[in-house]
Design brief:
By secondary structure, this protein is mainly α. It has two domains: about 1-420, no CATH class; about 440-535, no CATH class. Helix content is about 60%, strand content about 5%. The chain contains 22 helices and eight strands. Helix 5 packs antiparallel against helix 6, helix 13 (about 290-315) packs across helix 16 and helix 15 (about 335-355) packs antiparallel against helix 16 (about 360-365). The chain is globular and about 75 Å long.
Length: about 550
């Protein structure tokens, strides 16, 4: 089984390398985090606000509603009815130690993401125990990860799920090849933590079980030890469920069920906008009434977009062929099969089940757990291709390996810089930069203060978590419904004002363009250089 074990006898000081990699990663992550001065998008605002309120002693409650999958009639509502809580909980101790600020909130994510290059180094050594160069380049590529660089130090679940998911897969691999209960126990515990980060984490367990049951995926000496394998599965499942017990209790206390059913309703979305609708009939019968042509077209589109995410974002395009080469060459190894099994399960889940959330970011989030593996495989695939070409072209193999690997690293660095710059750039066609997202809400807050509007009076906005981040006012997502339905939501929650921006629900386009004369909302103020932010009085507001 030595060929299935992470190398501990490499002919160089690999432990010292790991220390250097982690320290260098911490410095690099801290530096690249500095340009980002706010969470930047709704998911990250969401986790930050919940951590803030928890640290401030306001309990697990949310002063906003960003979707209408769960029934609610007043604010605040129980927290984490759709997204999982661990990302926010990671921030809370740092708020307690260093005070509440975005810089403080970045610390745990800087730390966690700094461990990923070290894992890529170890995985690379597993693939080739004597290749220090490949291990170092794998670590460096993982440090850059062009499409992910901007996400590592913001308050989203990219870093924690990537780390926990990667460790789960490594523990599961060791469990498969050793049959030791300790590894099954660790895999179950890590999956529980990963589930508290993302609800699709059970796919990790499924990948471990399926890989273990594949023929010839383990050494011959272990193939007859099925009872031990089943016992390991039982240990893994039991520890996983025990880890989730506090979460089960919370769901039972707030929703009357062990699992909050809100997320499951996204299985029946017919467009992403229905996530924000109060009227969308999200059920199996209405989904089937949509028609098989629409259903098939949506799956094909999602599959194509997820494939582009895999190749373009997770493997930066140019690394994809080399990763494919190495995965194919090592396809009989248990580790490779586990990686491919999880990748396939996530891809299918985000294509066939979560057809609309998947391509909109869920696949990118869940796939982060594979990055250290895919990048290590890609680096070894690149070196395999270089050696193949050197033998036929008469190149100096050592020189070609160093030059072309360095060139690969340079490409990754340039891509990472460009994508981070794009995220920060302000005023482009893609909208404001991350540091400016939601800042107009400060002007809205000042206007509401001048009108004497209490913070507990809900306001309808595009991004409720960002609105609370800047104003500490209750907020509701603008429903993706006709004006009369939006007016009914205002009445139900006692909302005072509707804030329309350039990015607004399509059914309210005529109101934003001031073409709709129906008496649901009264335009009373405009903000921004060209009045692009419009404030409307809701029908229930005091006049």
């Amino acid at each position: 089984m030595d060929n299935e074990r992470l190398s501990t006898q490499a002919p160089f000081p690999w432990k010292r390398d790991l220390i250097v990699i982690v320290l260098a990663s911490l410095i690099f992550r801290a530096i690249t985090a500095l340009p980002f001065r706010s969470p930047g998008y709704m998911d990250a605002f969401y986790y930050y606000v919940n951590a803030w309120r928890t640290a401030a002693g306001q309990g697990l409650t949310e002063p906003f509603i960003w979707n209408y999958l769960s029934p609610a009639h007043q604010l605040p509502i129980p927290a984490f009815q759709y997204w999982m809580p661990l990302t926010s909980f990671l921030i809370v101790p740092f708020f307690a130690l260093f005070g509440i600020s975005f810089r403080t909130a970045q610390i745990p994510f800087i730390i966690l993401s700094s461990l990923l290059p070290a894992l890529a180094y170890l995985i690379s050594l597993r693939l080739a125990p004597s290749s220090r160069r490949a291990a170092w380049f794998s670590a460096a590529l993982t440090l850059l990860t062009p499409a992910y660089l901007k996400f590592w130090a913001t308050t989203d679940n990219f870093a924690p799920f990537a780390l926990l998911g990667c460790l789960t897969l490594l523990s599961g691999w060791r469990a498969i090849v050793t049959r030791r209960s300790g590894w099954f126990l660790l895999a179950g515990f890590l999956t529980g933590l990963a589930h508290l980060t993302r609800a699709d984490a059970p796919l990790l367990l499924a990948a471990i079980v399926l890989t273990a049951l594949l023929p010839s995926s383990e050494p011959p000496a272990l193939r007859k030890r099925l009872p031990g394998l089943l016992g390991g599965f039982a240990v893994m499942a039991a520890v996983y469920l025990l880890t989730l017990l506090p979460w089960f209790w919370y769901n039972w206390h707030t929703a009357g069920a062990l699992w909050n059913p809100a997320g499951a309703r996204t299985l029946f979305l017919r467009s992403y906008d229905e996530l924000f609708s109060t009227q969308a009939p999200l059920s199996l019968s209405t989904y089937l009434e949509w028609g098989w042509r629409n259903i098939l077209a949506s799956k094909l589109t999602a599959g194509w977009r997820n494939a582009l995410t895999l190749v373009g974002a997770m493997l930066a395009v140019y690394l994809a062929p080399f990763a494919g080469i190495e995965l194919w060459k090592r396809r009989r190894a248990a580790l490779t099969r586990l990686v491919l099994c999880y990748l396939l399960l996530v891809y299918l889940a985000m294509t066939l089940l979560f057809t609309f959330p998947g391509p909109r970011g869920s696949f990118l989030h869940s796939g982060a757990a594979l990055l250290p593996f895919l990048i290590a495989y890609a680096q070894h695939g690149l070196e395999r291709a270089i050696r193949w070409a050197s033998a036929r072209r008469g190149w100096n193999t050592a020189q070609a390996l160093n030059v072309l690997s360095a060139g690969s690293l340079l490409i990754a660095g340039l891509l990472a810089f460009l994508l981070a710059y794009q995220a920060l750039a302000d005023g482009g066609v893609i909208g404001p930069g991350w540091n400016e997202v939601g800042r107009i809400y400060q002007d809205v807050d000042a206007w509401l203060d001048a009108q004497g509007v209490a913070p507990q009076v809900p306001v309808l906005v595009v991004d409720p978590p960002a609105f609370y981040y800047y104003t500490e006012r209750y907020a509701l997502a603008i429903p993706n419904d006709p004006p009369e339905v939006v007016a009914e939501v205002c009445h139900r929650f006692g909302a005072g004002f509707l804030i329309l921006e350039k990015d607004h629900p399509r059914p309210l386009r005529d109101i934003y363009q001031q073409k709709d004369g129906r008496p649901y909302f009264e335009l009373i103020h405009m903000l921004g250089a060209s009045g692009e932010v419009q404030i409307y009085r809701c029908p229930t507001a005091n006049r």
